[in-house]
Amino acid sequence: MSTIEELVSKEYEFGFVSNIESETAPRGLTEDTIHFISQKKNEPQWLLDYRLKAYRYWLTLTEPDWPNVNYPKIDYQNIIYYSAPKTKKEIKSLDEIDPELLRTYEKLGISLTEQKRMSGVAVDAVFDSVSVATTFKKNLSELGIIFGSFSEAVREHPDLVKKYLGSVVPYTDNFFAALNSAVFSDGSFCFIPSGVRCPMELSTYFRINAAETGQFERTLIVAEDNAYVSYLEGCTAPIRDTNQLHAAVVEIIALNDAEVKYSTVQNWYAGDKNGIGGIYNFVTKRGKCVGKNSKISWTQVETGSAITWKYPSVILQGDNSIGEFYSVAVVNNHQQADTGTKMIHIGKNTKSTIISKGISAGQGHNTYRGLVKMSSTAINSRNYTQCDSMLIGNKCSANTFPYIEVKNTTSSVEHEASTSKIGEDQIFYCKQRGINSENAISMIINGFAKEVFKNLPMEFAVEAQKLLGITLEGSVG
Amino acid sequence: MLKIENLHAQVADKKILNGINLKISKGEVHAIMGPNGSGKSTLAQILAGHPSYEVTEGNIYFDGKNLFEMDVENRAKEGIFMAFQYPVEIAGVSNSYFLRTGLNEIRKYHGEESLDAIQFLKLLREKMKLVEMDETFIHRPVNQGYSGGEKKRNEILQMAILNPKLAILDETDSGLDIDALRIVANGVNSLRSNDKAILLVTHYQRLLNYIIPDFVHVLMNGVIVKSGGKDLALELEKFGYDKIKDEVFA
After folding, report:
1. Is B99 in CB contact (< 8 Å) with chain A?
2. Cβ-based contacts of B105 with chain A (< 8 Å)
3. B11 is in which domain, residue-wise?
4. What is the pTM of this model?
């Protein structure tokens, strides 16, 4: 066996199941399901109406088949749309949370007890369909920052939610966004008022536990004038041999001179070596630079999921606004990814940067798909795109589909692309210098992805580097 | 230090080496010369352990240990270094990080303390002077965007840092202009010592004007057809490989 074929087999570290009693909706999706979810969450009528409108619209749509991925047809009537850990009463403090839940997060390396908290990071923990805890709430609220579960925001800040929900990703946007708008259960809500620079990283940790349950979370981040926030999302799920659907929607709004940095380290269960099981990660993420001089930056490290379908995008509406997309997407074994971004330039002097690093190993398929659009109003705007693919072994594939539309004569769009292969020769070279193949691979991969990693917050950059090493362990020997 | 016995090897069913015998002792510099396709580079690659070559017969011992029982990184850790004919590029990995990782692996193997970044930098700067490389190379990615001469100098720098017992230079002179050749040769000469050995693999004699070998071997069709002192290289330069071919195969 060639050394490159050898290395594919570190067990998924977060594949355990927690034994937690939960309350679930009956299998399948009808208007009754939506009433059930809305009722469980004590939602106001306007939100129920919004869900129902989205549901009725979703019924008219067909699932898109243009992504460069293959999977058996999803039976939407065979999914459980709501599952929540059973609680006897309203939880007032972290002490009242089911200890099994706390243990679950401890095992994932996320401490919800504030004594042992990660320093400088506030965490909102979402378990299946509901948010179970948010740390540092009090400290943040003193600054006027609202950070917590989406459901809570609906109850406590309905005007804000009503104002911004669907303003970046309307339910009519696409099949999965419509589905999410109909059945979304929980997620994080984050609001940074004018002039406030959020002093800590805000982070949401998504965990799917229950079997045959979809997770449909909804995240909304609003940064008012001159506000700044750095936000991180992490995700894991147990090992199961059936596929599970994760169809989230994330919306970001940046007003004048505001900046939002959104980083994701996605580590959903990816299925086993033979491609059995794993999460279908069909996500719509979009930010809107509404105000002038605003900036939205997406950094993603995608290592998990059986199938990834997502395009974190930025609508550059305000003059001089900036959009950035930094991505490392890794596929191994039978994983498939069709990911990239859309940069829609509308305002004057807007700038966007896209750096995409795709790594394919095993029999993985990795596709970059990106749209850069310069509208007629986006005079003097610029885009720079760089798409690099790295192949490990010879059974994987990488594709790049750039779409470029320019409707004015003063903007410039640059696109660079490269494909390289981790060769036996690179590994041999490292080994000849005394470096074993595992360290060699991790060195080569990290070198390849460096431009993206340097945009991650420090703690997470380290985590991402480790994760990359684990994901590819075994793909080269 | 190195003993090669009746070495036969092939790559993808094509026989390349047909019974090589060679002994190298401490303190010696050997040059292997030969026309294109004679098997010189194959011999170097096999010593380093490149997976593409299949050894079909024979033995190699390094310091009394069976070389074929050591994998590539262990050979490196035991003190075998090869300067590559075509040094490999590694994007995004700085020269200093790459070399420090390698050096510390080797030190660990010998039960020595790892060097921290500051200690290493001191060593690196000192050795860079030897091959006249400027400081920008500390942080530049390994071999990426280097000229041919810079890549070769970088190989010698690595050799100087890793301080091997046996250094194999695979066509290190190819593609070098006269200044670069002098710099590379100076680097190699400064590493000559009584307890180390050097194996030069080269097509041309000119490198041997700068690095004077103790022994010269002529390789043809996968066997050493003639061995001698440094004068043999001059003879080759004067009369070409054809004369030897005529002598040997007449």
Report:
1. yes
2. 434-436, 439
3. 2-249
4. 0.81
